[in-house]
Amino acid sequence: MKYQSQKVALAYFLVAMGLFGIQVLGGLLAGWIYVSPNTLSTVLPFNIIRMIHTNALIVWLLLGFFGAAYYLVPEESEREIWSVKLAYLQLAILVIGTLGAVGSYLVGIHGGREFLEQPLWVKFGILVAAVIFLVNISLTVLAGRKTAITNVLLTGLWLLALLWIFSFINPDNLSLDKMYWWFIVHLWVEGTWELVMAAILAFLMLKLTGVDREVIEKWLYVIVATALFSGILGTGHHFYWIGLPSYWQWTGSIFSAFEVVPFFGMMSFAFIMVWKGRRNHPNKAALLWALGSATVAFFGAGVWGFLHTFHGVNFYTHGTQITAAHGHLSFYGAYVAMNLAIITYAMPQLRQRAPYNQVMNMISFWLMTGGMAFMTFVLTFAGTIQTHMQRVVGQNYMDVQDQLVLFYLMRFGAGIAVVLGALLFIYSQLVVRRELIAPASSGPVAEDAA
Amino acid sequence: MAEILTKSRARNIFYGGSLFFVVVFIGLTINSHRYVVNVSTAGMPLTPAVALGKHVWERHSCINCHTLHGEGAYFAPELGNVMTRWGVLDDPQTAYEVLDGWMAAQPSGIEGRRQMPHFTITDEEMRGLAEFLRWADQTDTQGWPPTDAG
Q1: What residues contact residue A406 under an 8 Å CB cut-off, 6+ apart?
Q2: Is the ipTM reported for this complex over the cut 0.85?
Q3: Do A117 and B61 touch (CB under 8 A)?
Q4: Which of A4, A280, A357, A377 is the most buried (most CB within 10 A)?
């Protein structure tokens, strides 16, 4: 840690990991209800549990991004954060808002737009926190060295916050509501968040591989260009069946088919940089997460997205377990794993210690990644059957669901692996004891890298 | 390649290209907004009852179990065409009665069956909800869903 104010990131990462725990436990419970539907049905219905599962995910990913920005911007800009106090104030607002939202959900107070269920005051809180963040980070960047990494990171975060405005716009016309809703949901995860992800990945590659900055930054610009060129009009793949014009069918199909390109780019980038780089960084777990994230994102967001993005296919698969399979693997690969990568990288330095417990962290990677992959496969099979029985044969929804129990049981098993992995990850970050396996000689290179 | 695609060129392509796509996207959005209002949802007026129904739908977070036009959670049946499935799309009174009867019977309590919670909804709100679901059902969704099963 070169700058004192980077320490802010530690608080963000701790809250993020806490919410991560809540998110996966909520997911496990929801998965169990698919197997045993009477569980808690009158006390805590499925819709509330799912709300907590998805909201906790979104908030902790954002907290991770904020933390990542507070960690890497000082190093990139070569100066302290403009105001440490504001950074903590921002976190306090977000924590209060999150607790308020969860409390509201538990007593049945919530909005009804998926993922945007937060009460209005919480939405305003998020907006205020976002503005504080942007001002704080922008002033830091403007006063210091400007790099491609901070440029892309800031572009992503500014646009992300700007799009949040649409959370306040809810037309009575359902089709308009849906169209503007996607301005947040799609343009976040298939647009602005990709910029943030790519910037974090570039930073990690810079630190972990020691490849020349010029090379890394050129890659970064190319990757984010392909992300926005495909992703903006790719929004059309959500506009096929919600009452919008038919031209979205070919616009959405063509452009969203290219959404696989930035993810392929990130995967290739990560592996080529590691291959080219000569630095032997001691934090092997961070490297594993970075490479793993880029790879799983390619499969989850890229390949699984491509699978049902053409309108001719999507006509049959839209809103089935195929969507659920894609949603789970893409969020895990692209955003969960990238957050865990930067946390894994930053934690030893934030806590001023060597990267301990690497083995435990790596086991958690394989547990979570294996679990998510298996979950994705079984949901894809379930979705294929559902698509055929319900969308082609025309059997009733519940009759079809009753035939999918075996898949839901396997999904629950996969969920247990993910939860164990997540808890192990948190444990490996928080409870420092001793090195499990003696590190290979890291030498002076490691010193330089840290 | 290194000479042709320099970092500053890559940066300019990124900013310039993105701006271009944003402008195209905004244009198509304006066109789509008009299309929704004037064409695809014009089959039935958006009455205060429909708007009320949408608020009822949102207050109870139906979307976190059901899908509507294929979007939402995948735990419970599609409702964008539920009025067609029930055969009451053109009959507001029966639509209300069937919906009211269905909601009153929840939760079923049947062991091993997914449970829909009980919702306390006034008569006026229930009529609104039925109107909202009828309104959604008449939206031109380009022929989706492929079968009445939703």
Answers
A1: none
A2: yes
A3: yes
A4: A357
